[in-house]
Design a protein that fits this description.
The complex is a heterodimer. Chain A contains 5 helices and 13 strands. Helices cover about 20% and strands about 45% of the residues of chain A. By secondary structure, chain B is an alpha+beta fold. The chains are: A alpha+beta, B alpha+beta. Chains A and B meet through strand 1, strand 2, strand 3, helix 4 and strand 11 of A and helix 1, strand 1, strand 2, helix 2 and strand 7 of B.
């Protein structure tokens, strides 16, 4: 799909260029100078989703099937950018449903662990296992996309945002730049006015659409306006929708040693 | 363009437009959904779990040839929290009422699994813990040679699923210190002798099961890379030499996790322990290694090979005597949570959202004794509502009359299990 947009844009620019090259040369030069750097756009969009310091947030997840609520759960996430990779490591503790209360998921790149205080067992997970659970939805929220993906500008277009309003947006094509990237390709629409992430489509290596995500309900949190809800639509079954609502943003002390599997049995935040 | 081509073109355009509209419509519908209210703040702090479980079923008795009813009622409590800045606690207790009762125990048995306090240094990297702690080591699914505090830890066996057994086991009273860094940790634990032998009193703390000798454990773990994690252990107990242990996990590709676990030391054989003779000590290995593969369809399959040089092999098994001697041998292995066969294998699978039904979970495993070729099969179909689980469990053991799994008192057990999780 990204190649398709690339060809269309290229042909269009060439045709216009032949007609206007002389008359509009100064204007064209000005536009070229003003064209946004896609990687910078991605960084700016990342900075809106991710506070620039360690933070915690409470997340309420509501699952819908065909418009009907079928499940809900809640968790608290503690996240911190890693000094070596710059990528976020996160520790998730489930609070609801009751059967899952206290269970933990640790993610530090490909180092993924599930800890159950009942069995005292730390079980290593593969990225595929993680994709099966709700924790994977965190990938579309607390992730530093600019670290793992190479962005290109695919189009400037109007897109419907999460509040169902039409917004002028840059459509970025993200290609996984390293093995740590969860998704092979991402299409991300970034608000042309303020770099807010509006919508994302996340693809597997096979090209299969895994999920479509809308970022919405921007509110002032930890120093700037950030999305406080995401709508996640399953790629295979668009009737399966998860709403993730974020509340109680905070910036507690989150030591680096929390992100080690041997810390999980004694994890007890204040 | 002639008419048929035009018709086909219009139809195709209409089809594409319809598909696009449907996609757009479904996204539009999704954007109209409203989130559930935020979880109440009271649900966020310290984990508290209270669970009530009832089970009833029928056992096909191998010994008597008939069938018998089996019933169980369990209450399970787990609570963790902060006592003061830097201080935390964990209490975990379980009461099982089982009919008919496990051999030698009353119908109702209380298991105080954990009760300890912990102190964390200001930076959270150093900690001291004291009390009854369920300290579990190892990466294996069905057998954990480096889980040195496993023996004597199981008071009642409510399921043969290895994961359930870990949930029910008793901790060991110990003093433990740990230091963690960004990618590594070191821990030292000392568990003193507090009693001589096991208790058959249902209300006992049963310190004789978990603290009947002095024990030391030093462990160090290291994240070698994002994909490889390893742990090394040194274990010493009164009257025995030092045992070495090591375990590791590795991520292979995006869907496969490999695990390996190994321990080495000098010990008496399981048969000598069962017979009450000290016998001669010999050096030997214990190990478990395997792979877990997960499909995009939410199916996880684990295969594991297991070995224990202190268990009976072909010749020893053949000469192990009659059913009574073999029963005593198997009971010793069970109490020590050790592998009864020199070689064994496990296949374990879980399927989430079975047949596309959300919250329907299938778990199943087969244990193979590769020496006498007997097998244990276990399967569970579980449906989960927000606070209630309903499950049907099936268990069948097969093998010759003197084989490991052929000696189990129940040939087959089918039971329904209902679980209520309090909020």
């Amino acid at each position: 799909m990204s190649e398709h947009y690339g060809v269309t844009m290229g042909a269009s620019v060439m045709q216009r260029g032949r007609r206007l090259v002389l008359l509009a040369w100064p204007l064209a030069a000005g536009l070229a100078w003003a064209a946004p750097d896609p990687q910078e756009l991605l960084r700016a969009s990342d900075a809106i989703r991710n506070p620039g310091r360690p933070f915690s947030v409470r997340v309420t997840l509501t699952d819908f099937e065909g418009g009907k609520q079928v499940d809900s759960s809640s968790l608290t996430s503690w996240a911190r950018a890693q000094e070596d990779s710059g990528q976020f490591a996160s520790l998730i503790r489930f609070t609801l449903p009751a059967r899952d209360a206290g269970k933990l998921i640790l993610r530090n790149g490909d180092d993924l662990w599930f800890y159950d205080p009942g069995t005292k067992a730390s079980v290593r997970l593969s990225p595929q296992q993680r994709l099966m659970g709700q924790a994977s939805n965190g990938d579309v929220v607390t992730v530093n996309l600019a670290r793992d993906y190479q962005a290109s500008l695919l189009a400037e277009e109007d897109v419907l945002d999460g509040e169902r309003r039409s917004r002028k947006a840059y459509k970025l094509g993200l290609k996984a730049g390293n093995a740590a990237a969860t998704y092979a390709n991402v299409e991300l629409w970034v608000d042309a006015e303020n770099s807010r992430p509006l919508k994302g489509r996340f693809f597997a290596e096979s090209g299969r659409l895994l999920k479509t995500v809308y970022y919405r309900r921007f509110e002032q949190q930890l120093g700037r306006e950030r999305p406080t809800e995401t709508v996640i639509i399953d790629g295979l079954n668009p009737k399966a929708v998860t709403l993730m609502r974020y509340s109680d943003f905070a910036t507690p002390t989150i030591p680096q040693n929390w992100f080690h599997r041997d810390h999980l049995p004694r994890f007890q935040p204040d | 363009m002639n008419f048929p081509k035009l018709a086909i073109g219009l139809a195709a355009a209409a089809c594409c437009a319809t598909a696009a509209a449907q996609s757009s419509d479904s996204e539009g519908d999704a954007l109209g959904l409203v989130s559930a209210p935020d979880a109440p703040a009271a649900a966020t702090p310290a984990p508290f779990k209270l669970m009530l479980e009832a089970a009833a079923g029928v056992a096909d008795r191998r010994s008597t040839g008939g069938t018998a009813g089996v019933r169980r009622l369990s209450v399970d409590l787990y609570r963790a929290g902060r006592l003061a800045p830097g201080w935390r606690y964990v209490v975990s207790d379980r009461i099982d009422h089982v009919r008919p009762a496990d051999g030698g125990l009353p119908d109702t048995v209380n298991s105080l699994r954990e009760a300890y306090v912990g102190w964390d240094a200001g930076d959270g990297a150093s900690s001291l813990e004291f009390g009854r702690i369920n300290l579990r080591q190892g990466t294996g699914y069905g057998y954990n040679p480096t889980d040195f505090f496993r023996d004597g830890s199981l008071r009642t066996v409510t399921s043969l699923n290895p994961f359930s057994q870990r949930e029910n086991r008793l901790g060991v009273v110990m003093l433990r210190g740990q230091r963690t860094w960004a990618g590594s940790s070191v821990a030292l634990a000392f568990a003193p002798k507090l009693a001589d032998s096991r208790s058959s009193d249902g209300t006992s703390l049963d310190l004789g099961a978990t603290n009947n000798r002095d024990r030391w454990l030093l462990s160090a773990s290291r994240q070698i890379s994002e994909r490889v994690n390893a742990q090394a252990l040194l274990y010493k107990e009164t009257g025995q030499g030092v045992q070495l242990g090591a375990s590791a996990t590795a991520l292979i590709g995006t869907a496969t996790v490999a695990h390996a676990e190994w321990a080495h030391g000098r010990q008496s054989s399981l048969a000598d322990m069962a017979g009450g003779s000290s016998g001669g000590e010999k050096a030997g290995h214990r190990y478990a290694f395997g792979l877990t593969y997960t499909t995009a369809g939410k199916l996880s399959v684990t295969g594991e090979l297991q070995g224990n040089d202190f268990a009976l092999a072909d010749a020893g098994w053949a000469a192990a005597g009659g059913a009574a001697q073999r029963g005593a041998y198997l009971l010793t292995a069970e109490q020590r949570q050790d592998l009864a066969s020199r070689r064994a294998a496990l296949v374990y699978l879980t399927q989430k959202d079975l047949l596309g039904v959300r919250n329907l979970l299938l778990s199943a495993f087969v244990r193979f004794n590769t020496i006498d070729h007997s097998r244990l099969h276990w399967a569970e179909l579980r449906y989960q509502w927000p606070s209630i689980d309903m499950a049907v469990q099936w268990q069948r053991s097969s093998g010759g009359a003197l084989d490991q799994w052929g000696l189990m008192p129940d040939r087959q057990v089918v039971q329904a299990v209902a679980t209520y999780h309090f909020r």
